[in-house]
Write a structure and sequence with these properties.
about 80 residues, mainly beta, two-stranded antiparallel sheet, two-stranded antiparallel ribbon, 4 strands, about 25% strand
């Protein structure tokens, strides 16, 4: 079964919701979990654009990570956190 993203109130930074994968505050998760959340953002006509987000990550050091990326005008921009 593929893990799915959902909405929660757990650790919401602002407003009253946050996104989570699996179960928020679960004591364990499925091994080798691999999932994706994406959103298309149209920046045509913008002189500049910035994407900011807050995250809370509880992972197994050296094994788990958060990877994020963006694509604009033929160029990929990416980074990761663990």
């Amino acid at each position: 079964m593929e893990p799915k993203w959902g909405l929660s109130t757990a650790r919401a930074h602002s407003a009253s919701h946050s996104a989570y994968c699996a179960t928020p505050f679960a004591s364990s998760y499925v091994n080798n979990m691999d999932t994706i959340m994406y959103r298309d953002i149209n920046v045509s006509g913008c002189a500049a654009a910035t994407v900011d987000f807050y995250y809370w990550l509880q992972t197994e050091l050296g094994c788990d990570y958060l990877f994020y990326a963006g694509y604009y005008d033929g160029i990929w921009y990416w980074d990761y956190r663990n």
